[in-house]
Specification:
Length: 366
């Protein structure tokens, strides 16, 4: 049902985006039409992203969001941006700055979804609507967009079982989950366990502080020592950054087993080409970013989200939040041409550098 809702939302969004630049004409929304008329396209949007170690935020999310906001406001919107660099306290300060600067709406990707709750409340108390981006922040948020995160975990788990084949019955896997401060990590874990439990034995499982590749590397080394390298048949890694640290530890131990990932980072795609990483989860950032921009512009103008957000999501502190959930794809050697290259995320030249060229040629990547 979610997938159907996303498909409908995508179609409706195209209609909605074209109309975003005008005030509500037919009192069909829940917003303040007076504010909408007064604001017009001259809105002020705050954008807060969580960290810059993962390549996606600066390379994709930020430029895509900013581009769509400008498009929807005839280039009249003012966009204020900050990156928290994985520091929850710094992000709280950044929210305070946005409040002081009197932004009309805030797009927020929380470092710590629970810790940010008071900051969200402070913003809302000052009349600033908050769009939770990628992670479901606590507090009175007005809208949310992300991927179907339970499905992400299921996709990873299914791919790992496919790669293991009969080995799933005899060996053990290591599960390297994300940070406990990220609600998405809990959903990835839930989805993965729903597929893996009863099919393969989990020898060791970790919640990785700050999604750090270094921490994942240390955890993997500990798991190899505890389980024994001859018993490990695969690794569930919740994202690509950690997969890099995990694969380094595996190589040091002389192990070559399937490893999952997420985000389709360039380094991960290259590892997939080389056969070092089995898969990643490809998440098309454009639909997510454009949904956030569309909802933020609509909220700043006092317009309804009904034609944009076709789903509803509950957090611990907000119910039935208007949401757009975007579907994901398992990225393997077989579909690199049809995903990241076709969508313009990377070119074949960017992927097939130096030592990867021969493998790219063999796979027909072009």
């Amino acid at each position: 049902m979610r997938r159907a809702a996303v498909a409908i939302a995508a179609g409706a969004m195209a209609v909605s985006l074209a109309a975003c630049g005008s005030a509500e004409e037919a009192d069909g929304g829940s917003g303040d039409s007076t504010k909408s008329a007064a604001k017009g396209d001259n809105i002020k949007v705050g954008l807060l992203l969580p960290e810059n170690k993962t390549a996606r935020y600066e390379k994709f999310d930020r430029p895509l969001i900013e581009q769509k906001i400008k498009e929807l406001t005839n280039n009249k919107a003012e966009i204020q941006y900050n990156n928290a660099r994985q520091d929850a306290n710094l992000q709280a300060q950044q929210v305070d700055t946005m409040i002081t600067n009197k932004v009309d709406v805030l797009i927020l990707d929380a470092v710590d979804a629970k810790a940010i709750k008071n900051s969200v409340q402070k913003a809302v108390d000052q009349g600033i609507k908050v769009v939770a981006y990628d992670r479901l922040a606590e507090g009175p948020i007005s809208a949310y967009t992300s991927f179907d995160n339970v499905q992400v975990g299921k996709t990873q788990g299914e791919a790992l079982l496919e790669a293991l084949g009969d080995k799933a019955e005899d060996g053990q896997i290591v599960m390297m989950n994300g940070s406990i401060t990220d609600p998405n990590a809990a959903m990835f874990k839930e989805g993965a366990h729903s597929v893996l439990d009863g099919k393969v034995k989990v020898g060791k499982e970790y919640d990785t502080k700050e999604w750090s590749p270094d921490n994942a590397n240390a955890n993997m080394e500990a798991a190899i020592s505890a389980i024994g390298k001859n018993k490990i048949v695969g690794v569930y890694s919740a994202n690509d950054g950690m997969a890099g640290g995990i694969i380094t530890a595996l190589k040091s131990a002389g192990l070559d087993v399937p490893v999952t990932g997420q985000d389709a980072e360039l380094a991960a795609v290259q590892r997939i080409v080389a056969g070092e990483q089995f898969m990643s989860v490809y998440k098309p950032y454009a639909p997510e970013a454009e949904a956030a921009a569309a909802m933020a512009v609509a909220l700043a103008k006092g317009e309804s989200l009904d034609s944009i957000a076709k789903d509803k999501v509950d957090s611990e502190s907000a119910k039935a939040v208007p949401s757009v959930l975007v579907d994901v794809t398992s990225l393997t050697q077989e579909n690199i041409n049809d995903t990241v290259i076709k969508d313009g995320v990377y070119t074949a030249e960017e992927i097939c550098t130096g030592k990867y060229k021969a493998a790219c040629d063999k796979l027909g990547i072009k």
